[in-house]
Amino acid sequence: GMTTPTDGSRVATHCPYCALQCGMTLSHETDGGVSVAPRGGGLCHKGWTAPELLDHPDRLTAPLLGGRPADWPRALDRVAEAIRETQERYGPDAVAVFGGGGLTNEKAYLLGKFARVALGTSNIDYNGRFCMSSAAAAGNRAFGVDRGLPFPLEDLAQADTVLLVGANPAETMPPMMRHLARPDLVVIDPRLTETAARARLHLRPLPGTDLALANGLLHIAIERGYVDDDFVASRTTGFAAVGRAVAGYWPAFVERITSVSVADQYRAAELLATGNRAILTARGAEQHSKGVDTVSAWINLALALGLPGKPSNGYGCITGQGNGQGGREHGQKADQLPGYRRIDDPVAREHVAKVWGVPPQSLPGPGRPAIELLGSLGRDVKTLLVFGSNPAVSAPNSAVVTERLKGLDHLVVADCVPSETVALAEVVLPVTQWAEEDGTLTDLTGRVIRRRALREPPSGVHSDLWVLRELAKRLDAPSRFPDTPSEVFDELAAASAGGVADYSGIDYARLDAGERLHWPCPAPSRPGSADDARPVPGQRGPAGAAETAGDARPASGQRGPARGHSGTPRMFAGGRFATPDGRARFTAVEHRPAAETADTGYPLLLTTGRVLTQYQSGAQTRRTSLPGRQEIELHPDTARRFGIGPADSVTVTSRRGSFTARAKLTESIRTDTVFASFHWPDRENVNRAVNDVVDPVSGMPEFKVCAVRIASTTSE
Ligand code: SF4
Asked: Can you give the residue ranges of the 4Fe-4S Mo/W bis-MGD-type domain (predicted)?
């Protein structure tokens, strides 16, 4: 293994894709290419093939103006001019920014600052709305803080039972499964996924009914005496109302809503009754018009069982995007300032404005969440800047979104590959890839990790940080825009000080010395943040396998106070949650149907998800050598019912639109449901059919259920 994070020919970094952020060593190959090796854990197919994009023939290496190559000064001047023109005519909010959950912490932070300070617009939001926003809202509601997993992944190996709700890590992040090898798994998913196939018990509810199932399991837990009364009495509030709410969720009633048998409900409750237990939710629980309440229902169950904050037990949410966690902490959300603080909080405004050197009253107020923002394109939003996102494919009701993108006065997109959104842009700005840049990301456990450059970007390619600095200059922004990643990080850390996600005790030197630092990690002079999560003295990250082969580790485990706060790998262990009274909050929630249920015109349900070889909108992974194509999964009985032969071309139609792909007949899916993955553009794009109705609290769209009809299109 490497003894330093970088030795010239090799560099210790992490995978560019999902939130597991697997450790990687990058090295130069003799033919000029880049090779990867796992560092500590494993890598999935996506990680192994990531370098294929670095010198890919599709790689964007020059700015484009109206589809033609242009030099950087001209392209940047054009963007600044477009912004000025729009704002003079329509006001500051007519220019909007759309960011991404894959951007580094530094980019997410600088993008938020750019929107508020250089553009003065309230309209900035990002694709994390599609990914994690429901669990974030439910976590804040219950614990006063939202950190995906409030404990290290290694803790899961100590659990006896892990309940996975709408999570399929065996396919989406395979290396995670080594942490789930020991516990018994209870998997809740309408499909028999790879993960469900490894489960001791697999429950297959009708899509859109998980909330009723969670209430039903809590009903049984109360009836059977599985509730941890001491924990509920001493560390929570609101249980009585939840008890009343779930009293009506009798197993037979829950079976009628969810189709999960009474016997299976009792089996699941029994597996969760004793031992070390963790409950983990993911997109399957979240991507609903009642996503926040659904996650709250699972958190209620975890709280009633006394799991959060107990060693080797807990509740967590498995984040999806590479920087899904950090992406929602530094201010690229419509309602947020850095440090995971609310933009309408006067104290936060004062603090951040001071770091930025601007008057607090100059900062705009909250803007519109993603779906609302995309809905205003071409109406009162005339110019859009997109960084690290491909909404033409990834947004629900995507054909309409594509039309709206076309209806803008100006669309500016920064990306490394010609995505479907890039194809619509007036100005395209080619930016660096992961192996060409330094920065940090925050993984699904709240650990801040270092991305490190192995090589220079191709000539003609610049970092997003440089782009923002150059634009800020042209717009005469009243604040400095540094573009050195460590300098941006230091500013981000200062801006986060005192917030929930406090990074102020972290810097590149500590990370490069191999320290494993999870937020909150306040600077020594500062008291801890709102959280309990004051470090247990001497507590360190687990000396786990994840990094042993890779990151340079500190010379010894000892750290005096001079080295600073040691971070917070395990939250809530000290007896307090991050709520004002230190108690976790139950929230009484009721089942309600999805916005669309099956009817005679649209007799089936469509649900969406990921496949092993692809990531997000597929703009990157579709360009690698990984196999994969769109397939519409349906049960053989369903195929017979609708006259569809194996491998027929099938068109799926909802009230919004249609998509077409090859049928894959499989008994792994319910007979009333069809599945397609969301990585494919144009006529294969499932999001043409997906419902853009959103959760009223989180703004998350209902990706996981809408009503459809299907027909064979093979003969056409
Ligand atoms: Fe990369 Fe995620 Fe695969 Fe790990 S699991 S190699 S982070 S895509």
From this structure: 8-56
Pocket test for ligand 1, best of 13, 25, 43, 614 (most atoms within 8 A of CB): 43
Q: Token pair 């397939």 is at which residue?
A: 631
Q: Which residue shows structure tokens 């144009």? A: 682
Nearest alpha-carbon partner for 312 in 259, 365, 270, 276: 276
100 within a domain of the structure (yes/no): no
Least confident of 317-326, 486-495, 587-596: 317-326
Pocket test for ligand 1, best of 13, 14, 15 (most atoms within 8 A of CB): 15
Dist. CA 137–CA 212, nearest whole Å? 19
Q: What is the maximum span of the chain, computed from C-alpha positions, in angstroms?
A: 74
Determine if the peptide bond prior to 57 is cis (ω within 30°).
no
Atom of ligand 1 nearest to the CA of 38: 6
Kindly report the pTM of this predicted structure.
0.93
- The SS3 call for residue 574 is coil
The CATH number of the domain holding residue 632 is 2.40.40.20
Does the pLDDT of residue 35 top 90, yes or no? yes
Return d(Cα 201, Cα 164) in angstroms, integer. 11
| Residue where one domain finishes, among candidates 276, 298, 322 | 322
DSSP annotation of 328 reads G
C-alpha to C-alpha distance for 572 and 310, rounded to whole angstroms = 8
Q: Which domain holds residue 665?
A: 604-712
**Element spanning 28, H or E:** strand 23-28
Among residues 299, 322, 345, the one where a domain terminates is 322
Q: Could you tell me which residue, 541 or 339, shows the higher pLDDT?
A: 339
Q: In the predicted model, is pLDDT for residue 558 greater than 70?
A: no
User: What are the b/e assignments for 265-289, b being 16+ CB within 10 Å?
Assistant: bebbbebbbeebbbbbbbbbbbbbb
Whether 320 is in the pocket of ligand 1, judged by its Cβ within 6 Å, is no
The atom of ligand 1 lying closest to the CA of 20 is: 7
Residue 544 β-bridge partners: none
How sure is the predictor about 447, in pLDDT bands with cuts at 50, 70 and 90?
A: very high
Residue 45 falls within a domain, yes or no? no
Say if ligand 1 is within 6 A of residue 546 CB.
no
Torsion of the alpha carbons at 179, 184, 190 and 193, rounded to the nearest 10: 50
Ramachandran angles phi, psi of 613, nearest 5°: -90, -5
The separation between the first and the last C-alpha atoms of the chain, rounded to the nearest angstrom, is: 57
Q: Which of 266, 296, 311, 315 is nearest to 164 (CA)?
A: 315
Tell me, in angstroms, the distance from the centre of ligand 1 to residue 468's CA: 28
- Our CA angle for 264, 633, 174, nearest 5°, is 70
H-run or E-run covering 108: helix 105-113
- For the chain, what is the domain count? 2
Pocket test for ligand 1, best of 13, 20, 21 (most atoms within 8 A of CB): 20
- pLDDT value, residue 548: 30
Q: Is 419 a domain residue? A: no
- The answer to the question of residue 38 being in a domain is no
The sign of the CA dihedral 682, 403, 286, 96 is positive
Ligand 1 nearest atom to the CA of residue 615, by list position: 8
Q: Which of 26-30, 562-566, 699-703 has the lowest mean pLDDT?
A: 562-566
Quick check: 331 and 116 in contact, CB under 8 A? yes
Separation between Cα atoms, residue 453 and residue 525, nearest integer Å: 32
Confidence of residue 688 (pLDDT cuts 50, 70, 90): very high
Copy the structure tokens of residue 158: 């100590």
Which atom of ligand 1 sits closest to the CA of residue 175? 5
Structure tokens at 710: 């299907």
Instruction: Give me the CATH number covering residue 318.
Output: 3.40.228.10
Rounded to the nearest angstrom, the distance between the alpha carbon of 18 and the centre of ligand 1 is 5
Q: What does the pLDDT look like over 81-111, one tens digit per residue?
A: 999 999 999 999 999 999 999 999 999 999 9
Tell me the C-alpha distance between 550 and 1, whole Å: 6
Query: Token pair of 229, please?
Result: 């009364």
